[in-house]
Write a structure and sequence with these properties.
heterotrimer, A mainly beta, B mainly alpha, C alpha/beta, B: mainly alpha, Urease accessory protein UreF, C: alpha/beta, Rossmann fold, 7-stranded parallel beta sheet, 9 helices, disordered N terminus, CobW/HypB/UreG_nucleotide-bd (chain C), chaperone (chain C), UreG (chain C)
């Protein structure tokens, strides 16, 4: 299955954000949620079908204009499943954030079901003066099953320079992924990249988490846990919506 | 190319500061994740497939074109979220340049403290080695340094540790070949495999009052 | 006339100006780096206490800094700080990966970096003391790292130590036999130690010391003063 979705958020000229484009197709359905006008706009990803399954090629493009504030959430975890034999499933998410724009990407976790083969590609470009909060959580297998194969490939650029470049591979075909260098037997991992203003304070955030100042203008928080609750305990407090001035 | 020169570059006795770095092993031992040969095996395989692949690719890229040192250095910054690991990599790069300057005529680099793989590539280039040889030296270094630290920290049988390194040698070659194939790619396209526990562990390690290894 | 210098009026007292861009506090031995003295010896022999004593004795008259290689990153540095003998910015700690002798002999890069960083941060120095981690009798410093080395043993380690020899005792530029105040308590015969040290070391000097009684390590401080003076004279010649 091939599907694509697009969100374009713009400042409405009255201190709020309007959605100039909100277009999706199953399984990438998008819904505007939450109150209108109150500082920013929230869009939920609504799963329209099981999956992604092997062979799926999905693409979501997000654009946040100058002064616009967009929060992207999802109603439920997405579950990468094996499906029929075939090429890996793929979800590509691209986002651009203009100067003065804010994008908060805080979806529910991706679950790598046993036997899945999934590639998640993320390309984010934030202009100087833009603000980004980008969260990705991954759970390695449903309850009591081995992890499927997931490869996450993330590039976040800020002000024209690459701020954060990261790949993570888990499951069959990823040597040592459950060894003590990568996840150490942990079944969940989460990352949060913050760039621009309002960055979290660096430090160690629990025994298996850290908030790290990047070499460029941003911060990465990473947490590894026996399950997703441990990851949430470390990262959720860093994702709380700041009081919005103006 | 000279095999003897490659051996010099990969030798753990090269005075380039490596003996004081555990490659992230010390914090994982403290966390109880590495206690024996089996767990060391898992650690080394993960390290080789992540940091080892990245180091090998960047060493090969720097060896292939030392003129790219500055952009490669920035590429490693973007791949090294932990400030403690950036510091450790740059300290080892600086130490490697110190040794390399005494051994060969090095091209001038934009930084006196480049990331370790960039320095390694510059040395390999000055020594007349090829990108794939630089990649092998880099991949080899990422596991032998930690393995030596395991012998010192856990008192593991050195023969058992070297038996493990022998089993990992083909994987080391495979990773190096994979890395070297891509040495001419744009920096953003070079490997970026990360290891969350190495990042987290390094940040915790940097706060310890008592530690035996610099990283 | 140097283009950066101003005109002198006819009624001015004749005077000179330092070269622009030149630190007026530049030492007499311009061009020579700090004298580097290594201090090695077995665990517990009093290396850190000796460093503290030397800082007390020499801190006022020499621009000095310390690199410590204790297995614990901050312990020795903390000792010096607690004793108020040296401010934190003059101390660097080096991790040795469980191999204190490697860091001072086989792979000296981390120590060289620490010395260079101190000189870069503090400006020219007269003396850098490099304290090794506690090791055994075979540990010695590389000549690539230090100019002169002191080996510290103590009376409580037994009066046979000098006779055993080993590279530290035999080749150090100065052998310090510390804790002489304990000799009667541990039944050590200082004359035996003196005789054995002379036999092992021939013309190389040995001093007896009780840091409990001489908190400024006078004979060792004097030995270092003489080295610095010689070095300055040579560099100035």
């Amino acid at each position: 299955m091939r599907a694509s979705a697009t969100v374009v958020a713009e400042a409405d000229g009255r201190g709020g954000t309007r959605l100039a484009v909100l277009r999706g197709e199953s399984p990438l359905l998008l819904r505007r949620t939450g109150p209108r006008g109150a500082g920013g706009t929230t869009v939920h990803l609504v799963g329209g079908a099981a999956g992604p399954l092997r062979g799926d090629d999905l693409r979501l493009d997000i654009e946040v204009g100058p002064g616009a504030v967009l929060e992207m959430l999802s109603v439920a975890a997405s579950l990468a499943l094996p499906g029929r034999p075939g090429p890996p499933s793929r979800l590509t998410v691209t986002a651009t954030v203009a100067a003065g724009g804010t994008l908060r990407w805080l979806p529910e976790p991706l679950i790598a079901a046993a036997g899945c083969d999934h590639i998640a590609v993320t390309r984010v470009d934030v202009a100087d003066g833009g603000t980004l909060l980008w969260r990705d959580d991954l759970v390695c297998g449903r309850h009591d099953e081995p992890s499927g194969a997931v490869r996450a490939d993330t590039t976040i650029r800020y002000a024209g320079a690459t701020l954060y470049r990261h790949e993570l591979a888990v499951g069959p075909g990823a040597p040592g992924w459950d060894g003590a260098a990568v996840l150490g037997g942990g079944r969940a991992v989460g990352t949060l990249v913050a760039a621009g203003s309002g960055l979290p304070e660096p430090g160690v955030a629990g025994p298996n988490a850290a908030v790290m100042p990047l070499a460029g203008p941003g911060v990465l928080a990473t947490a590894v846990g026996a399950d997703i609750r441990e990851v949430r305990a470390a990262l959720d407090p860093l994702c709380r919506r700041p009081a919005i001035a103006s | 190319m000279s095999l003897a020169t490659l051996l010099l570059l990969a030798d753990g006795r090269l005075p380039s500061g490596g003996h004081a770095h555990s490659g992230g092993l010390e914090p994982q031992i403290a966390a109880g994740r590495v206690r024996d040969i089996r767990e060391l095996d898992g650690f080394l395989r993960g390290r080789l497939a992540t940091g080892g692949l990245v180091s090998a690719a960047f060493a090969a890229a720097a060896c292939g074109d030392v003129g790219r040192a500055a952009e490669l250095d920035a590429g490693l910054d973007a791949r090294t979220p932990s400030p403690a690991l950036r510091k450790a990599s740059r300290a080892q790069g600086r130490a490697l340049l110190r040794a390399g300057r005494a051994m060969w005529r090095l091209a001038s680099l934009p930084s006196r403290e480049p990331h370790q793989p960039v320095a390694l590539g510059a040395l390999a280039s000055a020594a007349g080695l090829t990108p794939v040889e630089a990649a092998v030296a880099a991949a080899h270094g990422t596991i032998t340094g930690s393995a030596s630290a395991a012998v010192r920290l856990l008192g593991l049988d050195p023969y058992a540790v070297h038996a493990l390194l022998a089993r990992l040698a083909p994987e080391c070659d495979r990773i190096a070949a994979l890395a070297a194939e891509r040495h001419g790619d744009p920096v953003d396209d070079l490997p970026a495999a990360g290891a969350p526990l190495l990042d987290i562990g390094a940040e915790h390690h940097a706060t310890w009052e008592v530690r035996l290894f610099a990283s | 006339m140097h283009p950066d210098l101003h005109e002198h009026g006819p009624d001015e007292v004749p005077h000179t100006h330092p070269e622009p861009g030149v630190d007026p506090h530049e030492p007499l031995h311009t061009g020579a780096r700090a004298l580097r003295v290594g201090i090695g010896g077995p665990v517990g022999s009093g290396k850190t206490a000796l460093v503290a004593a030397l800082c007390r004795a020499l801190g006022e008259e020499l621009r000095l800094a310390v690199v410590t290689n204790d297995i614990y990153t901050t312990e020795d540095a903390d000792f010096l700080l607690r004793n108020g003998v040296l401010p934190a910015e003059r101390i660097r700690a080096v991790e040795t990966g469980c191999c204190p002798h490697t860091a001072i002999r086989d792979d000296i890069s981390a120590n060289l970096d620490a010395v260079e960083d101190l000189e870069a941060a503090l400006g020219p120095l007269d003396l850098v003391l490099v304290e090794s981690g506690g090791d055994n009798l075979t540990a010695t410093f590389s000549k690539g790292l230090i100019d002169q080395q002191i080996f510290v043993v103590d009376v409580a380690g037994g009066d046979k130590v000098p006779r055993k020899g080993g590279p530290g005792v035999t080749t150090a530029d100065l052998l310090v036999i510390n804790k002489t105040d304990l000799a009667p308590l541990v039944g050590a015969d200082l004359s035996v130690m003196d005789r054995d040290a002379k036999a092992r070391r021939h013309d190389l000097p040995t001093v007896f010391l009780s840091l409990a009684e001489d908190r400024r390590a006078t004979p060792v401080a004097d030995w270092i003063r003489a080295l610095v003076a010689t070095r300055t004279a040579v560099a100035g010649a």
